Structure prediction request, 311 residues.
Amino acid sequence: MLSNFGRADGGRETWAYNFVPRLLERYPSLRLSIYGFHIDGQPDNSAMALMLGQSLGDMLSIRFVRAKAGAIPNQIAFLRRLRTIAAGQPAFVLAVGSWVELLAVLLTPRFQSSGKLVWLRSIFADEKAHRYPAFMRPMLQRMELAVLKRADVVIANGEDTADHYRRRGLTVKVIPNGVDVDRWRIEPVRLGEQVDVAYVGRLAPVKGIEDFVEVAREARHRGLGWLRFHVIGEGPSLASVEQAAAEGLLHYHGAVPNEQMPQLLSQMQACVALSRATQSTSPCCVHFCNWQKPTRCISTQPRSPTSQTSE
Prediction:
């Protein structure tokens, strides 16, 4: 598995706190190796990941790869380092994220005889391709398809992502996002005079945070003072969130440690997920559904004529 375990990334909640412990609990004969990624000058998340490894004993090993920011693209830097540190010849290698992680696996000599799985967390053309010049995108999409065809198994975290790649000729299985329902279970909360609405996740346009800020602004314009808006997370749109907080439009809580989240979210009455990149339900929404709270999970992307809003 490849991840930088960013505080606002899916690798923490979906993987570190849920998938990995449950996988090893269900299959105690497995031995899992995780390769983390740390870019110089960016937050170092290795302590959290290594703590997870210590709690699971010899079933899990974690090693972080360092790379210099800006010298070459991060993915290429990771690929070069992975080729030199990957140990052993595992039965299976799981590339998590996109075709880029799978490419790193394909180009690592030690993994040539291993089974190769890729777990797609989003649609590359919708969420990642904008980072590259427009003239390169058609070529990258052709490269993506060629690389994905070399996987033994392709997995997606939602039916919309799976359907996108099925239309391109791939066979795709679906494993939806999930959370530990026992850990997040609390008593139902009744609506009162004030309604607190939470956005939890990466602060990026593709996740709908800018829409959330505009809703908070519109609520003030309409005099809906009984609605209070909260943002929890980090990401590239942080400046606009901090500006909205300074204007009194919302409360910004920063990146809250996972162990503190149940207490904080117990104070909220509603949660929104405004992703433009996938229709799969966010872990935050799953938490709230489990609590029997009003939850609105919305996909706002205009990608497919069959796309629908789900509640």
The longest helix spans residues 10-26. The chain has two domains: 2-174, 195-297. The first strand starts at residue 2 and ends at 3.
